[in-house]
């Protein structure tokens, strides 16, 4: 999952970046609202974390601008302000949730995880699809009740496909959602990760769970629910 973090407190920004990357998010940074607006318009994010008290363009104006352009990724607001009206203003501008500083970073991760899940219609952190189970909170993957170890980027690809079961996802879209903005989109790493996922999660090929659609991308098979 790729996240935009707009925070002008550089110490906090770096702390959150490390925490998010540890939780297997790819993170793009902005330290003022002007840069945040450009990035939000330019790139396809799974979610954004936006501080309200930003220089150049404040967080409320930034959120309103994104929403007015039809940009709908979930937004979590950060604010150091105590007044309830500031929280209401952030939500009224188009944010989906808020946290007041100081906060526990574990709570931020839990709220962010929930926002992303809900944006694709998943209410539970545990996503099941036939023999495959992915726990987005603990980042565990199981096949037929047996845990399977995935690398960070293998997990990111599988998580994205599990959140979009039955949908065709191009190599470019997958790359954009698991890497930050500096990555070479022409790389063939997605093909490598898909091959590794097939080998690790379905070594006998009995489930045929990732379909390759020539010229279009990849689709995770959606198994009938029990």
From TrEMBL:
DNA-binding region(s), chain positions: 124-222
Transcription regulation recorded as keyword: yes
Domain OmpR/PhoB-type span(s) in chain numbering: 124-222
Matching Pfam families: Response_reg, Trans_reg_C
SMART domains according to UniProt: REC, Trans_reg_C
PROSITE patterns with a match to the protein in the record: OMPR_PHOB, RESPONSE_REGULATORY
Domain of life from the UniProt record: Bacteria
Modification type 4-aspartylphosphate: residues: 51
Keywords: DNA-binding, Phosphoprotein, Transcription, Transcription regulation, Two-component regulatory system
Domain Response regulatory: from-to ranges: 2-116
PANTHER family recorded: REGULATOR OF RPOS, TRANSCRIPTIONAL REGULATORY PROTEIN PHOP
Name under which the protein is recorded: Response regulator transcription factor
Source organism per UniProt: Thalassotalea castellviae
């Amino acid at each position: 999952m790729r996240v935009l973090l707009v925070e002008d407190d550089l110490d906090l920004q770096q702390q959150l970046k490390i925490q998010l990357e540890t939780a297997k998010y790819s993170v793009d940074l902005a330290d003022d609202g002007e840069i945040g607006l450009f990035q939000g318009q330019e790139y396809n994010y799974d979610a954004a974390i936006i501080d309200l008290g930003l220089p150049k363009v404040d967080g409320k104006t930034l959120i309103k601008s994104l929403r007015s352009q039809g940009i709908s990724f979930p937004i979590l607001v950060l604010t150091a302000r105590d007044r309830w009206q500031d929280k209401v203003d952030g939500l009224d501008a188009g944010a989906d949730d808020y946290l007041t500083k100081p906060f526990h970073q574990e709570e931020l991760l839990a709220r962010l995880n929930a926002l992303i899940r809900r944006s694709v219609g998943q209410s539970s952190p545990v996503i099941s699809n036939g023999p495959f189970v992915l726990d987005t909170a603990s980042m565990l993957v199981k096949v037929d009740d047996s845990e399977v170890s995935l690398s960070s980027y293998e997990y990111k690809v599988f998580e994205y496909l599990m959140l979009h079961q039955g949908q065709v996802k191009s190599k470019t879209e997958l790359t954009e959602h698991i890497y930050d903005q500096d990555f070479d989109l022409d790389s063939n790493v997605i093909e490598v990760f898909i091959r590794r996922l097939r080998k690790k999660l379905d070594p006998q090929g009995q489930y045929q769970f990732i379909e390759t659609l020539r010229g279009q991308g990849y689709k995770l098979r959606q198994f009938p629910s029990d």
